[in-house]
Structures are given as C-alpha cells and as structure tokens.
Amino acid sequence: VIEIEAPPLRERKEDIPLLIEFFLQRLCKELRKKHKGFNKEAFTACLNYRWPGNVRQLRNIVERAIIMSSEDWIQVEDLPPEISGARFEAPGFNAVTEDIRKATQAFERQFIKAMIDRCGGNREEAAGRMGINPSTLYRKMKDIGLNE
C-alpha cells in the first residue's frame, strides 16, 4: 500500500481553473451539452469558495452547473447558494410578525416567479428544473395566487 498525501483544494487555488476546464470538457461531452465555460463572476465565485468537499465536490458542482445552465456561459446563478453567495429573501418578509404559512407562500411565490422568468416563461421547463410535475406547479401557482 502506497500512501499519497495531497493538500486540500482550498490550499491549491491554482488547480481550480484547470480542474474546472477538465470537468467541463469531460462532462459536457458525457452529458451532450455545449457550454463555453464559466463566466467571470461564476469563475471568481469558485475561486473564492473553500471547497470542503475537495475535488469531488468541485466535479459535482461543475456537473450541476452544466445541467442547470441554459446559456452558452455558465452563470453564477447556476451555482448553489453556498458558492454563489446568493441569499434568497422574500420581499416584505418579516420573521417576527408572519406565521410560517405566510412565510412559505412568500418564498414559494418569489421562487416560482424567478424560475419561470429564468426559463423564459416556459412553465414545463421551470417545473422540470424544480423537480416537480407541471400539474404540481400549476396547483402551487393557483394556491399562492400566481395565475397569470
């Protein structure tokens, strides 16, 4: 048995661009997707992240971004919030005065609207990206008053 020690990815920031490019080329081919790469903002977010899951986590994030992105260039919005630094806040949300049903509805309303906008108004695509059936999306939209 040979033991090989490698420093964690957070200590090898210079490897991140090469690994992103390697995984991007390999996974795009495997998933039959075409992406030119990460845009500057997404790339910077990856460089600034601490990568507790090391290379395996980086690979999974690149794969997720390839699947989530509908653009030529992977955007920071295609990355999970812990990497992109995104925080999701429902407008007018006040945790002290609102009950959980109102808070949940406010979140769902904003989330669903954002996803439909991101999919260019295509509700079926939005439902697929959210991991729900289109009929479930339509029901949720009716329940929270988003019938447009």
Would you kindly provide a brief summary of this structure?
The protein has 148 residues and is mostly helical. Helices cover 55% and strands 3% of the residues. A two-stranded parallel ribbon has the order 1-2.
General description of the model:
- By secondary structure, the chain is an all-alpha fold.
- The chain folds into two domains: about 10-85, Helicase, Ruva Protein, domain 3 (Orthogonal Bundle); about 100-145, Arc Repressor Mutant, subunit A, CATH 1.10.10.
- The protein has seven helices and two strands; from the N terminus they run αβααβαααα.
- The chain has helices spanning about 15-30, 40-50, 55-70, 80-85, 100-120, 125-130, 135-145, and strands at about 35-40, 75.
- It has a two-stranded parallel ribbon with strand order 1-2.
- The radius of gyration is 19 Å and the shape is elongated.
- The N and C termini lie far apart (about 65 Å).
- The model has no long low-confidence stretch (mean pLDDT about 85).
